[in-house]
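Box 3.1. Reading complex inputs
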Amino acid sequence: MSDIASLKVMAAQVRRDIVRMVHAVQSGHPGGSLGCTEYFVALYGAVMKHNPRFQPDAVGEDLCFLSNGHISPVWYSVLARSGYFPVPELATFRKINSRLQGHPATEEGLPGIRIASGSLGQGLSVAIGAALAKKLNGDDRLVYVLMGDGEQQEGQIWEAAMYAAHNRVDNLIATIDLNGQQIDGPVDKILSLASLADKYRAFGWTVIETANGNDLAQVLAAFAQCQQLARQGRPVLNLLRTEMGYGVDFMMHSHKWHGVAPNDAELERALAQLPTTPLGDY
Amino acid sequence: MKKYPFTEKKDTRSGFGAGLLEAGRRNPNVVALCADLTGSLKMGDFQKEFPDRFFQTGIAEANMMGLAAGLTIGGKIPFTGTFANFSTGRVYDQIRQSVAYSGKNVKICASHAGVTLGEDGATHQILEDMGMMRMLPHMTVINPCDYNQTKAATLAIADYHGPVYLRFGRPVVPIFTPADQVFEVGKAVLFNEGADVSIFCTGHLVWEAIQAGEMLAEQGIEAEIINLHTIKPLDEAAILTSVMKTRCAVTAEEHQIYGGLGDAVASLLARNLPLPVEMVGVRDRFGESGTPEALMVKYGLKAQNVVEAAKSAIRRKGR
């Protein structure tokens, strides 16, 4: 278990990585990546039992799936800084011949990635399948999956939600990044989801809500609560309220930075708000 | 013409069911998923014997494909079962991203393919499925011809690492391949040697091609009949060797002439050995309700159509 101070340092460094990676190729998705930094830092730094000497079948390990694959920068940064692959490789993000594809993929063999994601709505089903395999194998570790809130508009999500509850897939901890934004605007304006808590509860899930998903202490407490609620006959959902673009003032409170890269001046402004850390830039 | 007597007729989907059960007995990692068509897919025996390894997904095929992909993480070998239409078109993107691009060891098993589904009509009679699956990198595409070959193919793909699309059908058809055959993925099967025309056939059209071979023999034409049960990877050497000898080819499949076996063979020949090719298949139209037999006749998928195509191919090589 890492202490919260070191996790905060990690989070600060991951944020620098995200904006530098996206700036370097002038493409990618900084907003959701910055918003989900605490989620990934907590998961890999303190919550999951995992081994950076990557074994694809993850026997005896917890598993993490990212369904909204466009926030790959945050996952790549956390994986590299957890020892899955060399940190300097972050510089290859989205470039030709890189293992760090725009959206996560297995084709190039990047350690830490077990399935491609990016076309939305598929990750929950995959996570449930992996959870079923763990049950068949008598492996008592847990499966974690992160989804976007806009992604909840995909029909497959609800097929999967129904399946997991009906079949008591209770070794699964899903999280929805509730940042309220999608590419074209606020989720409530594009296609309102109304109450996801009510919806998932009606489907038979256990649901908890985290008021501030950018507060490491709250994120850690939520994970601990989810772990306690797991293995009780119901899948568990954490509705994690985050701020898209968190940590860079001009990227917050808007959907604008969902999939836009900062230019040189904007990078400078962003980095000025994200202090360097002892971990060092890639 | 070599004789292929048969004493029994069975549906190819029952060959799948028998093969799945046997594969389950041989390998504890074999698991099965079905989207509310257990009876139609003949998966009931597997479900009964291995209830813990059988997953009823309900009418939710997209989720079924994702579950299957996830089950491979942990070493399972999932076989999904639903109609060919819902195994491909309905879930193309799920297969593309979570199965094929992710290189997952999922076996997509698809019944009721083609017009021989019969009375249900065009909504369920998919004729484009092999094309869709063949286009996907990493995907293997197999369309066996009778009960025994389907059973053997099902067993073979359990031991074959990588995503596979296995396509079979609803009607009872003659059993004319041996019960003890060894199925080799990607390997053509020679049914008859001949020097005048090569007939490349797959699925239900193999039996029609054999009938056609007998009709052609009565007219003094020696057809070489080669079963390409695997559409991808294509046994290119077998095709080229045969056409090198016969100098013309016919393809026969219960599928659109676009995208399937015909396209695959014609493309290979165009690149390597440009000689006359005639195609027996469905010509850019949807199916309709009717008996399987009536539909085979109306859509030009009978032995007589193969005979006419063979004669046309032979005429063209003389030009």
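In summary: The radius of gyration of chain B is 19 Å.
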